Prior knowledge:
Elements: E1 3-10, H1 42-54, E2 57-61, H2 62-69, H3 80-87, E3 90-93, E4 105-108, H4 111-121, E5 124-128, H5 131-139, E6 145-150, E7 171-173, E8 178-179, E9 185-191
Parallel strand pairs: 1-5, 1-6, 2-3, 2-5, 3-4
Antiparallel strand pairs: 6-9, 7-9, 8-9
Amino acid sequence: xxxxxxxxxxxxxxxxxxxxxxxxxxxxxxxxxxxxxxxxxxxxxxxxxxxxxxxxxxxxxxxxxxxxxxxxxxxxxxxxxxxxxxxxxxxxxxxxxxxxxxxxxxxxxxxxxxxxxxxxxxxxxxxxxxxxxxxxxxxxxxxxxxxxxxxxxxxxxxxxxxxxxxxxxxxxxxxxxxxxxxxxxxxxxxxxxxxxxxxxxxxxxx
Length: 206
């Protein structure tokens, strides 16, 4: 059985919208695109590239898919990230899309059932961005790992991770946090059942 891993770049206030460029995603009048670049360094870049090399399949929500499909196919094989994205099987969750332009893409309309089937076929399915899709996958208990890169800034607007519709879920650290030279911190969590609640911290532990 394979795993579904969510890869996200996040600000301290949970914004994941348009980290890569000013015009990447202006939905909702977002004016802060391209916020990741000021904190990019060789070490974090190598970590991001290593995760991309590990993926066997790419699963995206419709909006993120449109952004990726408009960018990565036009980049040559001399870019290892482009080469990986263009080579692996790609899946886009959409009820309205009938044909996908990016070669190697399959449209998923019944996401929960079809992702369960994908986990039988691929060892590592990565979801990049795609916040609404992630909430849907969490609701169906289909997220096995969160790979978060947290950046030291607050934007105050933009699409936020795990907003409305998120169901309770517990996670545990899969390894020690890793800090990068310009302030980004890598946090990797694995699914760990349901949250433990109802504990009064003022009382002694049993």
